Amino acid sequence: MLTNLPSISMAAAQQLDGRRVWVRHQFELLQRISKQREEDKYTDFTLKSKGKEFRVHRNVLAACSPYFDTLFQTNMMEQQSGTATLNFTSAEVMEELLAYMYSGSLRVQEDMVEELLKTADHLLMVEVKDLCIQYLLEQLDVSNCLAMKALAEVYKADNLLKAANETIRKNVHTVIKREETLDIPLHSVQELLADDLLQVAKEEELFGFLVAWTKRDLPERKDHFPSLFAHIRVTDIPKRYLEEYVKTEELVTESEECQKYIAKETSSSEEESSQQLNARSGKMEEVVMVTGGVSRSPGNEEGTTEMLCYLPRQDTWCQLCPLNYAVTFNAIAALNGKVYVAGGRLWPENRVTSFVSCYSVVENSWTRVRNMSAKRANFALVPCNGCLYAIGGKSERIFLGGSIGEVPVTTVERYNEANHTWSYISSMTKVCSDVEAVATNDHIYLTFGKDQNGTNIAGNGQLPYYNVKTNVWGKVSATCPVSMSRGMDDENQILVSFLRDSKIHFLGLVDGESATDGFYQYYDIAADQWTAVTIDWPGNSPGIFLPRNISLYTPVHNGNIFICCTLDNENIGVHSEKTYYRGHMLTLKDKLLHLERTYTTTGVSSIRPAPTSSACHLDIPQKHLRAFAKDVTMSVSLL
User: Fold this and answer.
1) Which of 356-360, 518-522, 608-612 has the largest mean confidence?
2) Nearest-CA neighbor of 439 among 419, 418, 412, 410?
3) CATH class (in words) of the domain with range 171-278
4) Looking at domain 26-139, which CATH architecture does it have?
């Protein structure tokens, strides 16, 4: 009779009745079998690898590996001798695999994962192979993506191959500049150059890589150059570069095939539209996204739900999927290829909101995500280190008597895109509204903001900054040569700030017929130093005409600044019921302010940014631009 067993209640026994109960039997069984192997009890087979012998149980090997299961069922020499020599793997890896077979535990390390994967693949151990691939996926980055792609192709690891290709496409600019890339085999170069989804900004970079790869081993690779060159989209290379570098490259001049290819492609793609069609689908193009604001027509103001997109290269506007609510004085920012619109004042209620919506470029659709913790308008939304930061602004407050008003705030919160949550972080030392900011190297610098007295908190150049790693606010110690204000000391002054070359640049533009009072200065972050620069304004327009009712501005790549503003009838000297919009694309080069492009649009039905709208810029693949192009309803007219 069994004694000293733990008692069990009748209710518990009824709950267990008819059910299979799992206890620790399987774990204890593995422990006992593993101990038997250690003690060489009941073992009936020997594995040899690189001079080391392992005594094992056939039934354990056959249960864990279809390779051994087949081996033990056939009348092979190993079956008869009771010994198998494994020349395809090391003793260390075999020891690790046997530990897994006898315990269910596997240790995957960087120095052995490749051989472990190879051995698991040979032994048909799918679970181990999957674990190795998962480990490689976690280690995948720009430095090893080409090697990972090669491994994935050998071992038919589809998930790893897909991830490696995506990493290569997104980081091709960096990948092709790595020294080891010059040693990849011919078929890999061909696949790389033929990939239509490469997110390359400049096709000439691929040409430069091809030339460098060929010259790395010229005798062996020269004959392959013409066939590889046929994958270069020569119509997407700037004409000057094509003439000065491509056509004069010795590898090209010595190849009649290459010269014919250039002649054929350039003769059939003279139009820019054709060149766009020939561009890679993955080529990254910069666009300016604009949303929110108040649409003005004679005697009427109306909040807008429009989402507009400006394509600088094609010089066109298009309308995208609208928001499902009208908002003004909102903030907008791009993060990981998506556009976020947050806060602002809802129209027509004119109430501050905490709403946040996310726009998908791929699907041309909006999704509501988690609201901010606080209602905000006139604030900054800044991407930094994979998160969004909502800084300052104005929030609602209910005063005595029940009236509702707006007050500037000090609070700051961070949005984590991975888990869709907002959390408060360290607050600013002063209240701040109408905030503008830039981010670089784990720091967010406030370039403009009004305190409770309407004074620019960055006016003297001592920019407040936030360290995202330490969660601490600080202030730049250096002061700027030229005092900066906007809408306070000089109501005609418009202050534009942007980040370039690890420097924060400030451009003071003037509303009126003359821009002689404008200024340009920059703050060098590394040196903690301000520098004022004397610049020449555009010769054909000494005053870049910027009325007070500027709609928006946003910095874009290559040092350009996109500025858009409304012009009333009085400003432009015409009598019409239509509202005119003027935009400027400015760039600073060699201390010269260049007017790259100016456009105007007219009419209520025209696409144009609304006053108090917000803008941001981002890079999107060419394939999505082509989809946008179908929705283009107006091309801007150049002045």
Assistant:
1) 356-360
2) 412
3) mainly alpha
4) 2-Layer Sandwich (3.30)
Tell me the three state secondary structure of residue 586: strand
Q: Which helix (H) or strand (E) holds 625?
A: helix 622-629
264, containing H or E segment: helix 256-267
Return the HEC string of 156-207.
CCHHHHHHHHHHHHHCHHHHCCCHHHHHCCHHHHHHHHHCCCCCCCCHHHHH
Task: Give me the helix-helix angle, 25-38 and 91-103, nearest 10°.
Answer: 140
pLDDT at residue 615 greater than cutoff 50: yes
Return phi, psi of residue 540, to 5°: -85, -5
The dihedral of CA 166, 167, 171, 172: what is its sign?
Answer: negative
Whole-number Å distance between alpha carbons of 213 and 205: 12
Token representation of residue 92? 């260390």
* Higher pLDDT among residues 308 and 623, named by residue: 308
**Residues sharing a CB contact under 8 Å with residue 606, sequence separation 6 or more, in sequence order:** 581, 634
Cα dihedral 282/284/285/290 (nearest 10)? 100
pLDDT tens digits, 66-87: 999 999 988 778 777 889 999 9
Alpha-carbon Rg for the chain, nearest whole angstrom, is 33
Reported as type and span, the H/E element at residue 507 is strand 503-510
The tokens describing 88, both together, are 């395809």
Q: Where are the domains of the chain?
A: 26-139, 171-278, 284-638
Is there a shared CATH topology between the 171-278 domain and the 284-638 domain? no
Percentage of the chain lying above the pLDDT 90 cut: 50
Residue 414 phi/psi, 5° resolution?
-120, 140
- Residue owning tokens 């701040």: 432
Asked whether the beta carbons of 144 and 110 are under 8 A apart, the reply is: no
Q: How many CB atoms lie within 10 A of CB 26?
A: 10
Contact assessment for residue 339 and residue 330, using Cβ atoms and an 8 Å cutoff: no
631-634 long-range contacts, Cβ below 8 Å, gap at least 24? 631/318, 631/319, 631/320, 632/316, 632/317, 632/318, 633/317, 633/318, 633/319, 633/607, 634/316, 634/317, 634/601, 634/606, 634/607
- Cβ atoms 353, 346 nearer than 8 A: yes
Tokens of 567: 């012009």
Closest CA to 414 of 469, 365, 457, 461: 469
Output the pTM of the full model: 0.69
Spatial distance between the Cα atoms of 104 and 63, rounded to a whole number of angstroms: 12
- Asked if residue 474 lies in contact with residue 465, where contact means CB atoms within 8 angstroms, the answer is yes
Mean pLDDT (the chain) is: 81
Contact 269, 275 (CB under 8 A): yes
Q: Please, what's the b/e burial string for 167-192 (b: 16 or more CB within 10 A of its CB; e: otherwise)?
A: bbbbbbbebbeeeebbebeeebbebb
Query: What are the C-alpha distances in Å from 551 to residues 49, 211, 400, 577?
Result: 74, 46, 35, 19
SS3 at position 93: helix
Structural fold of domain 284-638: Neuraminidase (2.120.10)
- Name every residue whose Cβ is closer than 8 Å to that of residue 74 and which is 6 or more positions away in sequence: none
Q: What gap in Å lies between CA 100 and CA 121, rounded to an integer?
A: 15
